[in-house]
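Bench notes, afternoon.
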Amino acid sequence: MPLGFWPPASRLCAATVSVKRTYVEESTLMHRISLRAPLAAAAALLTLGTTVLTAQQGAPADDIDRRTAQVMPKVIEWRRDIHQHPELSNQEVRTGALVAEQLRAMGIEVRDHVARTGVVGVLRGAKPGPVVALRADMDALPVTEEVDLPFKSTVRTTSNGQDVGVMHACGHDAHTAMLLGAASVLAGMRSQLAGTVVFLFQPAEEGSFGNGAAGDAPSGAAGLIAAGALDNPKVDAIFGIHVWPEAPGSISYKPGGAMAASDALTIVVHGKQTHGAQPWRGVDPVVVSAQIVSALQTITARQTDITAAPAVVTVATIHGGVRGNIIPDSVVMTGTIRTFDAAMRKDVHLRIRRTAELIAQASGGTATVTIGIGTDMVVNDPALTQRMGATIRRASNTVRSDALWMPSEDFSRYQQKVPGVFYFLGVNAPGVKPEDAAANHSTRFFVNEDALPVGVKAYASLALDYLKGGTK
């Protein structure tokens, strides 16, 4: 269907529009799913786990439900607009401008161009009280979208010297739209706010760099923190939500360590260039690299106690040589290291260096190992997680509290400053199992918009309940 015929979100309450989408997985299994108009299903989703509550029991659930339903046409409109116009890390100029404009229209104080393209909104309640922050990220990925949607991205740009497509393949468009929706809900309930809500619209989660070191401009969460986003006003607690290919409307979380620490790995194997027909006259870094890749897998499979905590060492790229009859002088490999324990993190780093260097030495070459310390483990504050448990159970009737994720998130930087909890919202199409859904960062990653009201409701309820003391 041409985009010009796609009905505006404001009319989606009156019509149900079906858009057929095909999943093509590695197993060649074809899944035909229906992308229904989210507003047609919003009423049903908003009843997930909702009970009639008194003001003393927590957030006024009925008021939040009503206001969430009212703002959902705009949430869907914002999400589709942002999805169709994705921007890479630190380039979120259009997205940041949209966010700032909408927050100002809600009567919320706005600071824009924070840490390049970030936006901070401050909503001061009618009554004094603590300060709670809600965070969403805004950046997209260098991925070419293959989902057949009328608002699919056709944006292309240059990244790392390559012509690439740009896509919200990790759902940050949904995060931004949901947080804008929650801001609208909370702005309408200003008289009930006993404190202040800070809305953090963060750039560069996918491509954050720097941690404030000399000569390194901080970006992502570190950039917002360096710019004072948690200090003016002083934030007491923070919450974040991330979409995930799980059952639609479900919410998952875990007290304590929930997401892995992530470190960047680069190994340069130095050999001696020679003719491909005379390998004995040189040192073949390609063969050495192959040996190193294989040996690195034994670190997590045979050398670390993964019953204590999981760990992953991945080599994702290998580059070397220019033609088939020339053994090159060097090969460059890059990858990622994921760990859940500080001591194991240090030990794995040591074993990687030793393995690569000694294998290269045994072959007559050398290996230079560089490990870039990245994001730390996401650690959900146990006391705060327990305190907000009832709030999450009101937002969704499908809640899992023992999930563990190997991906990383720079939300961990906020948690190093203030107590925080990070949640995952399921956005699969109905009937699609998690193992059959396209993963985050995939060209086929898909967000079922019917799940977004649960995210809006969760954001708003977390803020209101925290400011009121929560249901413990």
